[in-house]
């Protein structure tokens, strides 16, 4: 028992000290430590909940020359094991000879002794620890079962932690993939609307403008000012539609590149709002089209936020490449800033959230920093450039 106490302390600290991402390795190591301490030829931990018939994933520690549990376990064997686990009783080949028949289906060689010990994780039945002896003649007595149960419960809790972590990682990846689809779909729709606005509405308005010009030249003097006023109104609408179309899908990125598109957008905002814009873009930085579009959208949203919320007078946009291939994009204003960032990030508005999501899609980190009180907000995007860029 003293020996088991030492193993217990050793494996507990190994499992507790391991980072969740490295747990698989730690579990395999501690399982082997338990195998040696318990003097068993093979230990396998088999979970109950994902006992997928014919592909029962398990952790295992095997002595030299001992056969592993085979990968493809016959469905009838899995179902019988499940039934035994659900009973929650220790089943030993010494007292239940039928178990030897069942156990011999797990591998080519028949073990001398076999025991199934139910183990629990986080207070609930988790699965079983199966111990098999092929060479060692050790009996699986009460003391053995007691020690194996204690060790097995600790290992089961750690495996449950890994499973939980994997599920969390998988669901995070699913969320990112879903966001990618939604944002991609939104971009496609925006592009279609932008094209319709440009190719259809703008053209029809332009020819209406030409016809109005013609009407103005043919009409009497009294009607001319009214027609000219309509023509001017029409010209304004046409320009607004062009702006809208460009905003919806910045074809300008494809045509003149991201740098020129940012400069042109910043200039437009400056002219429209009176904000002093300082744009400093490192021309060595090159992005693929998808990344460029997301970056442009992040800048668009940041500037639109400055106009809507900041009451600022100046904005700085800086794109800078570090020597270590990291690129930073910073959009900073001299506004009042955001007093309570936590509250803002949890609010139902979409702008800041969508910047973070777009960042995730392109493998960038987006962060918001409210500078000293009343000295503005910085939106920072950091991305690592691969290859020759
Ligand atoms: N540059 C800024 N200066 C000051 N406050 C800001 C700035 N940018 C964002 N905020 C604050 O953060 C909040 C959240 O911004 P967010 O862009 O998510 O939403 P929104 O602009 O209100 O709505 P939308 O969903 O249309 O973008 C804003 O309502 C505003 O209070
Ligand atoms: Mg916004």
From TrEMBL:
Keywords: Cell membrane, Kinase, Membrane, Transferase, Transmembrane, Transmembrane helix, Two-component regulatory system. Residues 22-169 form the GAF domain. SMART domains: GAF. The keyword GTP-binding does not apply. Its main location: membrane. SUPFAM superfamilies: ATPase domain of HSP90 chaperone/DNA topoisomerase II/histidine kinase (SSF55874), GAF domain-like (SSF55781). It is a multi-pass membrane protein. GO terms for molecular function: kinase activity. InterPro entries: GAF (IPR003018), GAF-like_dom_sf (IPR029016), HATPase_C_sf (IPR036890), HATPase_dom (IPR003594), Sensor_HK_TwoCompSys (IPR050482), Sig_transdc_His_kin_sub3_dim/P (IPR011712). This is GAF domain-containing sensor histidine kinase. It comes from Vibrio agarivorans.
